[in-house]
Amino acid sequence: MSIVVRDVREHELDSVLALNNAAGPAILPLDAARLRHFYEHAEYFRVAERDGTIAGFLIGVGSGNDHDSSNFRWFRERYPDFFYIDRIVVASRRRGGGVGRAFYADAQSYAEMRYPQMACEVFLDGTNDPVLLFHGSFGFREVGQHVMAETGTRAAMLMKPLCSYAWVRETYGDALPNQPWIAQPRIAHGSLPPRTGTCP
C-alpha cells in the first residue's frame, strides 16, 4: 500500500503520543500538554498513514517560532532563517519501508518555498549511525555539536541547504501561487509566526 502524508487530526494525538514515547532513547519523551502545544502552534505537524494506520509523524517549526528547545535555540543563534525538524518518529514495524523518506520529501517540498535551509539534530549515543547515514544520504551535513543542558545529551547539529528557495523567492516573493499542494499545512489554529531573515 502507498504512504499518505497528511496533517495530523486532533483525535489522533493520543496515538501520536504513544508512538513518540515508544520510540526509545533517540527521541525525547513527550507529555500530553507538550504534544497539545505542538498541535496548536507547530507550523508543520503531519502523520504518515499506511494500510489505514499511523506509521509515524513529523513536527517542524520555522526559525521565527517561539520554540523553547535548546537545540532550536542553538540553530537560531547561528542562522537567521531555517525550517527546524523538531522530531520525526516512525513506528518500529514500519522502519526501512520508506516512511522516513516520504516525510523528508514532503517536509522539503513545504520548506524549500519558504526557507533557505532545513535543520535538525541527531543524538550521538553510539547507536545512531544508521540515523546519521540516513540524514547524510538526504543531503544533511553536520555544522556543529551541542550538549543539551536539560538532558546532558550530545547531539550532532545538521543542516541542509534548499537549492530551490532562491529561485522561488526571486520569482514569487511572498505571493506563492494559490494551489492546494503549496498551501500552509496547518492554518486552523491561528496565525503562524512571522518569517525572519532574507533570501541569500
Automatic annotation (TrEMBL):
InterPro entries: Acyl_CoA_acyltransferase, GNAT_dom, UCP028520. It comes from the Bacteria. One of its GO terms (molecular function) is acyltransferase activity, transferring groups other than amino-acyl groups. SUPFAM superfamilies: Acyl-CoA N-acyltransferases (Nat). Residues 3-164 form the N-acetyltransferase domain. It holds the Pfam family Acetyltransf_1. This is GNAT family N-acetyltransferase. It comes from Agrilutibacter solisilvae.
